[in-house]
Amino acid sequence: MSKGIISREQNYSQWYNDIVKRAGLADHSAVRGCMVIKPHGYAIWENMKKQLDVMFKETGHVNAYFPLFIPKSFLSREAEHVEGFAKECAVVTHHRLMNDPNGQGVIVDPEAKLEEELIVRPTSETIIWNTYKDWIQSYRDLPLLINQWANVVRWEMRTRPFLRTAEFLWQEGHTAHSSKDEAIEEAEKMHEVYTRFAEDYMAMPVIKGVKTENERFAGALETYTIEAMMQDKKALQAGTSHFLGQNFAKAFDVTFLNENNKEELVWATSWGVSTRLVGALIMTHSDDQGLVLPPKLAPIQVSIVPIPKPAEEIDKVAYQLEDELKKAGYSVFYDRDDKKRPGFKFAEHELKGIPVRLAIGKRDLANKVVEVARRDTGEKVSVPIDQIVKKVNELMKDIQKNLFDKALRFREANTHHADSWEEFEKIIKKEGGFVYAHWDGTSETELAIKDRTKATIRCIPLDRKEETGKCVFSGKPSAGRVIFAKAY
Amino acid sequence: MSKGIISREQNYSQWYNDIVKRAGLADHSAVRGCMVIKPHGYAIWENMKKQLDVMFKETGHVNAYFPLFIPKSFLSREAEHVEGFAKECAVVTHHRLMNDPNGQGVIVDPEAKLEEELIVRPTSETIIWNTYKDWIQSYRDLPLLINQWANVVRWEMRTRPFLRTAEFLWQEGHTAHSSKDEAIEEAEKMHEVYTRFAEDYMAMPVIKGVKTENERFAGALETYTIEAMMQDKKALQAGTSHFLGQNFAKAFDVTFLNENNKEELVWATSWGVSTRLVGALIMTHSDDQGLVLPPKLAPIQVSIVPIPKPAEEIDKVAYQLEDELKKAGYSVFYDRDDKKRPGFKFAEHELKGIPVRLAIGKRDLANKVVEVARRDTGEKVSVPIDQIVKKVNELMKDIQKNLFDKALRFREANTHHADSWEEFEKIIKKEGGFVYAHWDGTSETELAIKDRTKATIRCIPLDRKEETGKCVFSGKPSAGRVIFAKAY
Known about the structure:
Number of helices of chain A: 14
Number of strands of chain A: 26
Strand content of chain A: 25-35%
CATH topology of the largest domain in chain A: BirA Bifunctional Protein, domain 2
CATH class of the largest domain in chain A: Alpha Beta
Largest sheet of chain A: 11 strands, mixed
Oligomer: homodimer
Radius of gyration of chain A: 26 Å
Strand order of the largest sheet of chain A: 3-8-9-15-12-11-10-23-26-22-21
Largest interface: A-B, 65 and 65 residues
Structural class of chain A: alpha+beta
Shape of chain A: globular
CATH superfamily of the largest domain in chain A: Bira Bifunctional Protein, Domain 2
């Protein structure tokens, strides 16, 4: 079976598009920049959602839902925010269509112009803080720990499925606090939640850091980020958590009476991850045979293939194993389609990233064994039927760990230190990857470096060594190394 | 504690609004007709979603996600559909804002006009069938059984929280089949799923029927509906499932090669329920003390109140019971807030519809008992501590059943037969409720009756008796009784 996937070596960007298409993850739509998330892609997102939702609830958050539309004037209230978000967005100007009097079809009814235009939310700080104004009067109403699962729209010019689309799905947490310290603690807590999710569930190692002023969320005083390295050595920002200070409270006049009955402005955070994580997952683990998924997020964890086709004695064992594995908590797919040959099924299950595949043949049955194949390494072993659940338990842990370790080794092998501009430029241009280098702390230098190399400061890592030095570009004093990389 | 809820008797409509507000279910927003779904309201919807999603997956469906926007021209493709949906909708005409050169704030950038306007989806048949065209080539690609959880927008003039809002949340199933019979079977199967959900989970009895031509979904050949009676005796359409024939396949040119290699048009269904169900739930069970929720959908199922306030010995028992009840699968809230008196907490838990409340007092503890109160009847009993889980198990079943039975009795008590126009008019105008009456089968008569009484035909019940008669309005022959009522 030709899988129609170009190799990463040949064309990484095309490889990604091929995986998305051939593994049935997403499709283009008739609307510019908007994708259709196909069932297999959506099932991965559903698993991500489910786990993140548990983690949000464990940390005391509840879900709510705010309107899709934001009155245009709201966007002007927070000055930096409007610069960051209001520019490329979908603007609703009318609320009615009418039959075209000159012919066929429908036209916009000119009589139905809105008094104030509505913006399809690019992010919901403004509409949410306008609501919080009504919900918060006293310190007793705080903290307010709310999350929203929603779709948002940003009118991107260059789009790629999952990584950058005009419409995408995400969650956005918006919390309100009575003190600065509590808000910072919240932003840091969610930064940690995202880190745990990325590493423990996506098997994707990330670097925790804060953004430079230049790369911060529009309206934030501090943006915490997790940065991952993709297989082409480029960085991908996988989740951000923002300490917003009192900026939105000021813009929407949200105050509370403290315990001493004095009026104070409320402190805010917001934090989000999106369907972009599906893109990150693909790019972190997949290979030239197709998708590779960490067991904890795989929609189907175990497949069973009858060799060469379904038969009574094979069915018996297959159904028994399916049953036992389901009881052990796995999602199982017994592929009984008798129009497809085993080789075709193997290729298809590889393409879809199913972590473990069982093949049941008549000859094996005589020996009371089943062939067990793991997707990540391709390794196959014969395992006694009564040992299958135990073996699958082991493999799932092993695959999850192996994927993480492999990605971590890859990142480490592609992480460099540069101490001169020549070295820096050479690494960024020839080798790629993450470069730890000294930086003088100015936006000017940051932008000059971006201009010359396309590399941006991904983050100021939280665990960076105490080490002063000289800026790799300007030669001015530097308080420590930051991470540069080209990024998605 | 004054709950700020008017009685149903005094003003039913205001009572509903009071419950929505006071129980923390929803709030108005700054955007006309759009509501904010507050955490308690959203948690009910989450529980509905969770259960429906299980039922959809059990019946072989998978989830996917299609774009929020629909190109304007798509809506014109299916003639009836455009009449039904394209008129009152949110129209996106531009994709950029700019700083106002004459002053403050932002204005729509006139340069950023879209070539073709985009409609915010009022329902997704058109964009989905435009996609299915690419997904369906052969009979092997069928059936396609897809569901989407999404937000939709219909520019309603008169809105009420949950019952009718410009933006609402829903699920829409869209399936494609190779034969008419299979599509009808699917539409009927989902009709049955909705019935089971309404009755077994919402404890809301419904009547299964089909809509008259006049009340059908725009573009459907048959609309299956479930109709419930609210406490003001008005009907509420709680879910619909549509057999769409080949209308959308024709409009979007979706054909398949059958087993004989001949090209045929694909058959379609669609089906949906929305956040309107939250409104239906409120109106079916709640009382003048607040929300009443069926245990299977209640976000908090058991609350524990320390009398008069938390203390070491009370905590010990409370945490133990909390733990046992959580292990038994219940969501539990131990209300340790020491700033509120027990009476206040009781009222608050009643308001929120928590089905079972435990009160732990020191005197009771000496006797090793706890006071157990049920929300539906207000009944209280003392139960030995070691019998609590057993008692809660019983009560949950009992409350769930009692709510259903009570609603059914109410519907039966308010269901009438009318055999003359005088009788019909008198019942509709004075008593309300459901009226079984003969109808001549014409839209003309249906509309004339609506015009005079505001009553519409809710459905042609599936289980109606074989009984011919004379139309209550026109006197012409009738093939059987249909159900008339005023409706939400």
